[in-house]
Structures are given as structure tokens and as C-alpha cells.
Protein 1
Amino acid sequence: MPVKNKPTPASKKTQAAKPSQDARPSQDARPRQDAKPKAARPQAPKPAAPAKLDGSKTIVEFMKKAGVEYVFGYPGGAVIPLYDALYGSGLRHVLTRHEQGAIHAADGYARASGRVGVVFATSGPGATNLVTGLATAHMDSVPLVAVTGQVPTTSLGSDSFQEADIYGITIPITKYNYLVKDPRTLPDVLAEAFHLAGSGRPGPVLVDVPKDVQISLIEAGEPKPVDIPGYCESPEPDPAALETLSLALGLSQRPVIYLGGGATIAGVAKDILTLAERLDMAVVATLQAKGTFPDDHPLSLGLPGMHGAKYANLAINESDLIVGLGVRFDDRVVGNVRRFAPMARIAHVDIDPAEIGKRLPVDVAVVGDLRRVLAMLLAKVKMTPRPEWRRRLAELKRLHPMVVPPSQGAIKPQAAIKALSDRCAGEAVLVTDVGQHQMWAAQRFMSNKPRHFLSSGGLGTMGFGLPAAIGAQLARPGVPVALIAGDGGFQMNIQELATIRQYNLPVKIMVINNGCLGMVRQWQQFFFSRRYSETIFEYNPDFAALARVYGLAGRRIEKPSETIDAVAELMDAPGPALLEVVVEREENVLPMIPAGMGQTDFFEAAEEDGQ
């Protein structure tokens, strides 16, 4: 320890009797001109005290060094020190109108950019308002770091004002979480949190910081290098498994690539295109993978599963090899496990070993990062034309086209979405909310680039769309961002129109207004004899007028002839704008395979009465 110099009696005297500001030394106190100055005694240099920051400034400074571009959040009592540290720091904060809006915005930012999204919230209700957003990100493997305030450590467990055990609440819906009780651990916790959120299979991480930790002084310094025992972020692929997969690809006559969100996360769009073209493989893509393989490519079959195209599901049914890349083989695609791809061997490539064989048995399993796996695989496989398979795929598309049904006087939602797709020409980032419009968009909106179709998949979170579009627009300021929402989900976070206006974000919003909770109503029509129990809105606001109240441009249309011009006007608006499209109430999402059925059990349009 450094030795402190003891104060001399002279220094004590100086501290005890300081002269006043206007006191002047007397003549007698001045040194004599002929007096020799005494030699100064040599003193050891005082060691510099280490710089200290409080916990809140530590958080802010860490994020600045980590390159965080935006923080989304909403202040409250338990994070006042954190927001004080934010003031004038240069770290850009986006003030939403609800904590759920903040976390969905951070989620949209992360999905559109591939970077870690960051959200701040206070304790108690502020933290619990993040729960739906954390679960949404967890299901779709979105990298987020949520920093929440907490009551002081001395009050934990005493039911203090706005106390909630957010650490315990969020264990099942985060990749990892922390309750920071020792201020000295804060830099290392933050470093671990960002590393965990963005590496391996990404996911949300929560850091709960009590108020006394936020104001405690700690030594400033760099965090230790991240070393998490047992955490394998990028397992090395098994060469034998890769060889087996390579041989299976060579022998297959009707191969299908089944893309999931892991392919988007890994950034392997070019490698997948090369693999598909080299081996003439059909490609189907889930919501989270849409755009990672170009929708307009001849080998693309689009969305598979419950509301996928007939030709996509029929190709899976006829395939002799399904190669799942970064997928969960979720129930909405697989349906009846015993009837999924009955003639095919199943190969599954994923970075998370827990996903392998979780829903259905696989014949070939490769655990590893898709970037590494595809690089190794492409070095093995050779050009293998399959003209008969290509011809069959083209025939399936011709026999079962995805068409827009003719209008009977009212606007068809499929037509409005197709008009938006045509106007965007594959260049816009499209965000959807959840419901019928989400499926129509997945079927008909053309996406040819990764991270250009953003939607809540695994959790199916209504209210996701509007705030996620905010995050997407901030992540891609030079790219058009459009949102398609239903009248139900749009109202769940409609307050975020104020956020769009405050930051003047040029988001273009299409609200599909059918006056009901369309997807639930559809199931009631098909399977519950049209007993529409609490799915019809007896009252809806005028969404276009409401948009204008919030300061956005707003227009409402009800006639099919208005659609194309209104969509053009929407996308050409210089700032944020909303188009309300009033559509038929009983328009349904077709094709449809009922839950638990097989790949060819299509619910035909003629059966819509549920008879």
C-alpha cells in the first residue's frame, strides 16, 4: 500500500487558520532581501489515486466503448442515477411511451442491424413491462441487453415500493441474467452480458442493478477478458457428420433446404445461394429466414407449413432429403411429426445442440456455426444438376399458384399487400405485427435481402410491429421501412406513434382494418361454427384521423380502385405516414393446414363454412 506523508505541524496550522480573502501580509511578515532561502526537503512523489466512477457512469461509459448506437428506454425512480449519468454523455437515448415499446424497438433495431439492442427500465412495473419483449427475443434468438433498476440491496426481499424479483421472473425467458449486488463486479458483468447476448446462439440478457450499486464508487478500468467456463459459443463441426451430409447430398434426387432464423443470424446468404444453385436444391424459408434466400429465385418456394404455399408443402412431402439450416423444426411447419416429409432423410445443422432431435428424429446431425459448416460443405460438394427436380418444382408452382382472390366490392388485403410489395420492389425493410396480415405478408411480400423482413415468430407477439419499426428505422436510416399491422395488434402499442413523431422517423404504416381479431375469428369460423366470441370490434377509431392527431400524414381507403395510388402516396410521403385499408371482415388466410395435420392436409377454400 502507498505510504501517506504525515502532516507536519505547519500544515496543520495552515489548515486551522486560513487567512481571509482580503487579508494581506504585513511588512514584517515579508522575507528579508538578504535572507538565504532554506533548501527544500526532498519528498517522495504521491501515487496517483485511481480514477473512480459510480455504477451508473460505469454503465454508460461501458456502452459508449462497446459502440452502442442507441438505448431505448423509459425512466423511473430506481434508475434516476442511471438517467442522470446519461444526461450529456453523448449516448443516444430513445424515449418511448411504454417499456414494452422500448424493448420491442430495441428488438427491431437488433433484427435489422445484427447488433445488440439495449433497453433501460426502472424497477417493479418498469421491469415487468419488459417480460413480453424478453420472451419475444428469446424465442427468436435476438441479441438484447436489458438493464433494469432495482431497490437498494438493503431492501431486497422486503416488498419495498416498486420491488419485483425480475431476476427470478426472467430466468426462463433470457439466455442469462444477473442481479448485481457487488458494485465492483459491474464492469465484468456488463462485458459478459454483451458477449453472451451477441455470441453463439444470440438471445436476451438481463442485468438488474440495485439503486445503491448505481451510486457506489468503483475504480474505473477495463473489464477482465470474458472467460465463461462451460460456454462454447462456436462448437467445431464433426468432420464425420459433415462427410455423411455431403454423401447424402450427392445421392439425393429431390433435396430441399429448410431455412430458419439461424441462417439469417449467421449471415450466410451467399453460401446458401451457392449451395442451392450448385445442387439444384429447392429452398423453403420460415418467417425468420425470409429474404435470406431471394424470394424471386426459381428455386425459392417461400413459406412452408400451416400457411405456406401449397407448392412448398408438396415439395417437402415429395422430397427425399430435408436439410434444416438454423431451424427449430417448429410445430407450425412440421405439423404431424409422423407425417412430415415421409420419404425424406432429415439432416439438421444448428449451433445449439439442444435443438437437434428436439421435435423429430434426425438422420444426420451437424452441430456448429453455419458459417463454418457451409464453408466446409461447399469445399466437398460438386456441381450436381437435377433437371427433373427443377421441372417438378416449376410444375408445382404452375399447378398451385399463390393468387390474389378476386374482389367482391371491398378491398382484398392480399391485393393491398401485393401493391405495397410491388412499390417497394424488394428494397424496403418490412416489419409486421402478428395475425392474418402477417401471414399474407409472408406469402406475398417479396424479400430478396437478409434482415429485410422482421416479424415476431416464435412467440407471436401482438403489438410488436409499431415499436419494432421504430428500431428498424433507426438501424437503417437510409432504407425505406414499412409496417403492416392489423387493427387489433396496432392498438396494443399505438402510443408509439408519438415516438415516431418526436424523432421524425419516416416509417410508412399500413393498417389492415377488418374490424376483428382476424386470425382467431378465422378459426372460430372454420372450427366453431362462426360463434364469434369476443373477436369482433364493435368500435374502432378512425386510424387515419388518429395518425393526423399524432402529427403523421393519414389516409383511409375503402375501394379497390384506390389501392395502388394510395400505396404510392404512402411510400412517397416525405415523413411518417399511415394508410388505413378497410377490408372484408371474413377474408381468410389460405392455404391452411390445421394444427397437427400432415403436409398435404390442406383446408380448401370450399370448406370455409366449417361444415
Protein 2
Amino acid sequence: MWARTRAVALVGALGHVIDVQVDLSQGQIRTAVVGRPDAAVNEAIDRCRAAVDNSGFSWPTSRRITILLSPADLPKRGTHLDLAIAVGVLAASDGEFPRGELDDAVFIAELTLDGRVRCVPGLLPMVMAARTRGLRRVYVPEPQAAEAGIVDGIEVFGVRSLAQVTALLRGGPVPDAPPVEPPTGDPLVTWRGEQRLEDVDLCDVRAMADARYALEVAAAGGHHLLLTGPKGAGKTTLAERLPTILPDLDHEESLELTAVHSLAGGLRPGTPVLTRPPFRAPHHTASRTGILGGGTGRVRPGEVSKAHLGVLFLDEFPLLPSDVVEALRQPLESGEITIARGDEEATYPARGMLVLACNPCPCGEYHPYNRDNQCRCSELKRREYRRKISGPIADRIDITRFVEPLKDHEVNDPIEVPESSAIVRARVTAARRRQLQRYADTPWRLNSHVPGPALRNQWPLDPSATRRLDSEVYGGLLTRRGATRVHRVAWSVADLRCVPVPGDEELEIALRLRKATPLDLVMLARGEAA
């Protein structure tokens, strides 16, 4: 006797549909799982046997049971195969089981010994993989039904137990079962975490017109940003308000981001889909695995992937281990990160905005103007501190700003009325809308995504600005990579100013943003008027 069900195996962010083939035959009585299972999958046999028996069904005890997880050369990890294995064994052992109901169905859940189901991480990418293969029904734990339901074209059945699954397949009355525990618990400390950033607004930042404009340009084009300045100058304050001027995610972006957080097991109960760009700010003592991803047993996404389509803020960035800093080169350049662990290789998206913040010296008191300089560090210490920002990393940063502490008259200026995040977000949204129209038939969304050759060939600067940018390269003031990034920033400035093609003024602003040169506020005012 033979039956087949389907489940999904995850390799990084990719889901592969698995045929769970169950064969009952004469021979030595034993149960064998083949197809490169890990320890959790091998242990599924004991869980499934107890779940079947305690659900009122009979586990075949007089036959040899062979369970093939096909394709057999793909590693299988995790407990989410339990339900598919249990249903396959029941279908193979019962000649009257409606096997036609299994043809386009996928089963994703862990089983407890009494037959109840439990939630599993990574459900969303599994359901997306099932839809790609043309499967149209999924059976998932009840609390995760909303998460699976955001995938179009899939009929979702939220279940509480193995008995409910078999009843649905047979078309009979569905028995009652206790509610399934949610995938994660409520936070123990409600006054910490990202919720503390919900009430921040850009209008909290007084003066700092230079830094505020740099934030706006970075948000418009998705550019990486480096903030330097003495301690207490407002670097963290600026970085925490960057997500507030980013527009909401569209449906496809929400799916991408939610899939990453589903893989990491970080979706909160009652929040099946993420609609706002994330803000991640790991401590500088975080490990390489925590920031980049990895882990033993199963590779998980790190902070750089959890910040996909949002902001990854690395404060005190020179204090990070050097290998972590240098490993950021790949996500900065390509927008994704590949992690290899033994026989497993996982690629995760990492196309977020990287915001680096650091003091100009270890004591944090250095200032370029002698009248304000209170630094107690030697020049050797300052040099060693700055050396953590290597040339290749600095070359991948689009915008660099030196943040100066506010003067007394700026703090108490009664005339200034800072713009709110809502006002700036409207301009950023309009600029991004222009980019979507410009790149409509391409795989790119934002200016920061477009490779250099495509920029030069299809979206060049005007001739005068092009000659100026080339002279910067020929004069040794910019590398070719740096010139490409200035070109991208110039387009973001033009999108904010509603200029059809970046010209000399837009290029001048982009160069100043790149080189940390103070901006000409008169020039910016002309841009706002336009």
C-alpha cells in the first residue's frame, strides 16, 4: 500500500515542495525515513506514532513502513514535516482514505503527542513555494492561517489537530480541539523594543537643516548613510527618525519582508503581514552570526536581512569586530547576503538602508574647528579609530554627514518650525513614485538599485554634469564606484526637486553629500521652491 502527501523544505529563503511518499510492505517490522532527514525529522516518527494513536486512529504495527522525502538529495530540516508524514501514513494504511484530496494539498505543522498541532517558523515562504508549484490548498496551524492567507491563490485551512485534518479531508464533521498556542509569546517588557519609536517624529529635530536634507535624499533613493560627529550631537536621534519618512511597503514588498521575519520566527501574534519598513539597531557587541545570519543546525537570517526594505542602524560602528565590518561589503553592493555552512548554502535579501554612526575619535569630543575641539585623544589613537572604516567600506557609502551639536540660539529659536515626518514622507513618496515610473520595465525599484552601466547608458546626467563627474574621476577625487554612487544620489536629488534630468546643481549637491562638505542652503531653498 502506498500514498503521497506534500510538504515544503526550506533552504535559506527558498522553499522546495517535498513529496512525502509512504509505502507499507511485508518484511521486517520497522519504520525508516530516507531522503537526507536531520535529527528533528527522524524524531518525527515517534511524534507521529503517538499523535496517530492518541487521535483515535491506528498506527500500522504489522508492516514495514518506508517514508521517502523526495527529492532525496535535498537536506530536510525541522519539525514542520510532522503533519504530512502522519497524514501519509494514515492514507497508506486505509484503503478507503480519499487520496484524491491529497493531490493539490500541502501539510505544514508540527505534531504533539496527543495529536494537536503546533506553529512552525518560516510558514510564509513555504506557502509561497507551494503556490509557485501550482498547489492550491494548505493545512496550517490555526494561529498562522492569517499569515498563509496573504498569499493570493491559496485556500488556507487553519487546523488545531490531526483529527481535524482527517475530518476535513474525509468531508465529515470536524471535532473540537483546544486552541493552538501562538508561534511566539507576548513581550515580557512592553516599554522596550521598536514600539518605543512609534511616537518619534522628524519635527523633534531642531535646526540641522543639512543633516535633515541628507536624511531626505537617503530615504528618497534608498542610499546608505554615514553620520559622524561628537557625542551627543544627535546622530542616533536622526537615525531613529529615518523610518518615519519612508513610505509604507506595497504588497510585494510586504510579502518579501514578512517572509524573512517568518523564517527568523519573529512575527508577533496578530501581525501576519508587515506593512512598515523595519528599523533594526543591534548593539556593537552583537556577533557575526547575529548581524549577518547563520547558526548551527539551520541557517537563519541575521539583522542585515531583518532590515530588508528598511533601516539597519549600526551605532558605534568602529567598535564592531573587523570581520563583521568587512563582511558588510556584499550586502552593501549587491543587496543580498549568502551564507555557507557545511553542505547548506542560504541566500537572503538584504536590500535595506545601512546607517552607520560613529564618533570622530574614541573620546567623542573631537571637532574640526579648534574653538570647539575638546578632544583628549592622541593623533595616533584617532588614526587607529578611523582605520576601522576601511577604504572599500567607505567607498560603498553614498552619503556622509558631519553632525554638529546645536548652539544655544538654535535650540531656543522661536521662529523655526521644523517639518514633521508626514510632510517629508509625502515628498519622499512622490520621489519614489517617479523612480517606479522610470524603472517600470526593469528589475529595479530605486535609484540605489540601478547598476552603473545602466545608469550611464539609459539615464545619464545632462552633458555639463557628466563632464564635471568625469573630471572628478580623472582627477583622482572619486573612484568609478564612487562616481556611480554620486550619479545615483544626483538622480534622487532630481526626483525630490521634480527635475527631469540631473544637472549641475543636482550633481553639486550629490558631490557635497558624498564628500561630507556642508550644503549650500540657498541652493536647497531653490530646489524646494522648484
